[in-house]
């Protein structure tokens, strides 16, 4: 329950701080990543790449999705990285995913288009885990 309250508050504050209002029917996807940084790569370098290279490419390919990088500053894994993705609706999310969670044809194409920038990302770190949860705004 405590985690749900904290996550809800964080999502709310993120929406306010970026000037985007969450609306009924939006999907908010939270990603918690466990990284293994490459030798001589700092979390700041990884974050800079995510903010300035990966996320702009991601948003260009995954049409209508807005990604916000987040960094844990308290609690478990404070050196971790995360991302909050806001999608207009379940219908817009489902353009890229089948009912079973696998990629749709459009999702496969989007993933292939993102592959070159993702390849550059993997030179900075291995993403050992990317646990996500999709939340529907009521």
Task: Describe, in short, the structure shown.
The chain is an alpha+beta fold and 138 residues long.
Q: How do the strands and helices of this protein lay out in sequence?
A:
Blueprint: H1 2-17, E1 27-37, H2 43-61, E2 65-70, E3 81-87, H3 90-94, H4 105-124, E4 125-136
Antiparallel strand pairs: 1-3, 1-4, 2-3
Helix pairs in contact: 2-4
How does this structure look, described?
By secondary structure, the protein is α+β, with helices and mostly antiparallel strands. The protein has a single domain, classed as Alpha-Beta Plaits (2-Layer Sandwich), CATH 3.30.70. The protein is 43% helix and 26% strand. It is built from 4 helices and 4 strands, in the order αβαββααβ. It has helices at 2-17, 43-61, 90-94, 105-124; strands at residues 27-37, 65-70, 81-87, 125-136. It has a 4-stranded antiparallel sheet. Helix 2 runs antiparallel to helix 4. The longest helix has 20 residues, at 105-124. The radius of gyration is 15 Å and the shape is globular. The mean pLDDT is 87.
- Count up the helices: 4
Radius of gyration: 15 Å
Secondary structure: helix percent: 40-55%
Give the CATH level 1 class.
Alpha Beta
Number of DSSP strands? 4
Strand content: 25-35%
Overall shape: it is: globular
Just name the CATH architecture.
2-Layer Sandwich
**Whole-number count of domains:** 1
What is the CATH fold-level name?
Alpha-Beta Plaits
Strand order, main sheet: write it out: 2-3-1-4
Top keywords for this entry?
43% helix, Alpha-Beta Plaits, alpha+beta, four-stranded antiparallel sheet, 4 strands, 26% strand, 138 residues
């Amino acid at each position: 329950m405590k985690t749900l309250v904290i996550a809800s508050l964080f999502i709310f504050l993120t929406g306010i701080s970026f000037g985007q209002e969450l609306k009924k029917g939006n999907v908010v996807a939270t990603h918690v990543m466990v990284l293994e940084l490459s030798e001589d790569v700092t979390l700041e370098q990884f974050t800079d790449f995510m903010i300035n290279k990966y996320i702009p490419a991601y948003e260009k390919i995954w049409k209508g999705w807005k990604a916000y990088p987040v960094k844990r500053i308290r609690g478990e894994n404070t050196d971790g990285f995360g991302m909050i993705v806001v999608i207009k609706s379940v219908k817009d999310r489902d353009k890229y995913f089948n009912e079973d969670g696998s990629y749709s044809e459009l999702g496969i194409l989007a993933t292939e288009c993102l592959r070159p920038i993702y390849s550059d990302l993997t030179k900075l770190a291995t993403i050992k885990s990317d646990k996500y949860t999709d939340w529907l705004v009521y």
